[in-house]
Amino acid sequence: MDFYSARKQYQRLSRLFHNGEITEEEFVQGVDDLAITDQEGTEWQIGLQSGRWYRRKGAEWVEDQPFQDGHQPKPNRGRRALFAFLVLLLLLLALLGANYFSNSGDEEPDPKGEGLAISEGTATLTPDDAGEEPSDSELTPTPSPVSEEPTPTITATLLPPPPRVPPQVWEVESQSWFTASDPLKGEWLAVSEQDWEYENITYGNTEGLFLQYAETVRLWHAVLATFVDSDRSLTLAMTNTTGIVSLACRYHPGTGVGYRFELSWDRWALMFYWPGESFVLAEGQPSEAFRQGEFNTFRVRCAGETISVWDSRGLLASVEDDRNPDGALGLFFDVSQGVGGVVIAADRVSVLKEAGSAGAGDTFWLDAIEVTLADRYSSGTSAEPILAALLRRANWGDTEVTITRENIYLTNGDIRVYPLELGSIGEEDGLLPLPQTPTAEYSIGEVYFSGIGPEELNDWQLVLDLRYEGYGEAVFPLGE
User: What b/e string do you get for 441-473 counting C-beta neighbours within 10 Å, with b at 16 or more?
Assistant: First the structure.
């Protein structure tokens, strides 16, 4: 099995597992079977949760790219068919171009090189007329035939409008998937110290951490009281109607001042707490699926003076509030009566990058458009190298945005390379469909470019250009 085949198989296994079509044991065993030994004898393995490649270095596994430093993949039959199709297309274009230039070479060149549509008139004097004053008729210019070629129209290039919201780069500070094979970490290590019952279970075909509690429990992020701009998403399901879960940001444990995104079976609310007081900034009702006990992803972001909250349907509310500029991140588990129950499937915390460009795994936010360069790899084994970029997209806003082949490209100075047209090959699993209209549910897929080899990646950038739609652009350097 080659690297490409292994990645495609991993994507298929991950999709089957998250859809509940295979068990965790089958998923783990399937990923374990994707181990590869390259031509140099180096062992490689895909990370169970991250989906990234890891190389064995002695007794350790280190994250690495298998398509650099000479670790070249061997394309499988599907990839060979893809490469053969692309190479054939490139050769055909080259032949057509050669034929075009060959035919154009038969034309007489313009000695002046001016190519004017209308030439100046001329007056001719014969030797017999020398010394005599020419008549008016002899001096009348003879016009040359007027060319029927239309005069090109010069049009101004419209500059894109400024983005409604300046693009932001966010980096993942911590993330957890609550499976039996993924140990607790960060603030979740304190779970065993709290007064509640907990265990890893499979709930609705999804693995998660089941928590059952009768009193308030609070988990504080390991980096306490240092966050200014933060983004947290939590995937959870309520097992009864009495539990309350809150995502807190810019919170001060000592005074109780801060923001809370409170979730219960029949209500969500964005709250601001002050000693002895509480203020409802926005509220509403959760989705019907959540009320029926299904998983839903909830997100709260504190960025600048804007506090925004989402669920799996999209943006719920965005408010301006400057009363609390910084504070800690926390998760609060409360109960209205009796015993509360909740299953947590995933938790991710991201922080705003102060400076610098996006790196591997970082996320660009273009207003409500979220895009992450999850991975990229290039193969130089074919006559024309192919670069594949693995992108994750989502649109958390109400306005539809369509990504086309003109929106996404590679750039190197003034050079642009647009994605390949793959035709029926585009039906292959995992390929990024273009055009595409992202929704509030994450979608991930590969997009291919021709002519960029592994040794050239440091000179190129991947761009998602939504400037003319008013969202700005996301720029990902492809080098290390």
Answer: eeebbbbbbbebebebbeebbbbbbbbebbbbb
Q: Which residues pair with 448 in a beta bridge?
A: 388
Strand partners, 417: 410
- Count the Cβ atoms, other than its own, within 10 Å of residue 310: 22
Name the band, by pLDDT with cuts 50, 70 and 90, for residue 428: very low
Asked whether the bond before 275 is cis by omega within 30 degrees of 0, the reply is no
- Distance, CA of 205 to chain centre: 27
What are 445-475's pLDDT values in tens digits? 888 888 887 888 888 999 999 988 888 899 9
What is the Cα 311 distance to its own chain's centre? 19
More confident residue, 8 or 327: 327
Q: Which residue has the tokens 């929704």?
A: 439
What pLDDT digit, counting tens, does each position of 97-149 carry?
A: 555 555 555 444 444 444 433 334 343 434 444 445 545 444 444 444 444 44
Question: Could you give the CA distance from residue 283 to residue 293 in angstroms, rounded to a whole number?
Answer: 20
CB 366 within 8 A of CB 403: no
Residue by residue, what is the 3-state secondary structure of 136-188?
A: CCCCCCECCCCCCCCCCCCCCCCCCCCCCCCCEEEEEEEEEECCCCCCCCHHH
pTM of this structure: 0.59
| Residue whose token pair is 């240092």 | 226
Closest CA to 399 of 166, 232, 164: 164
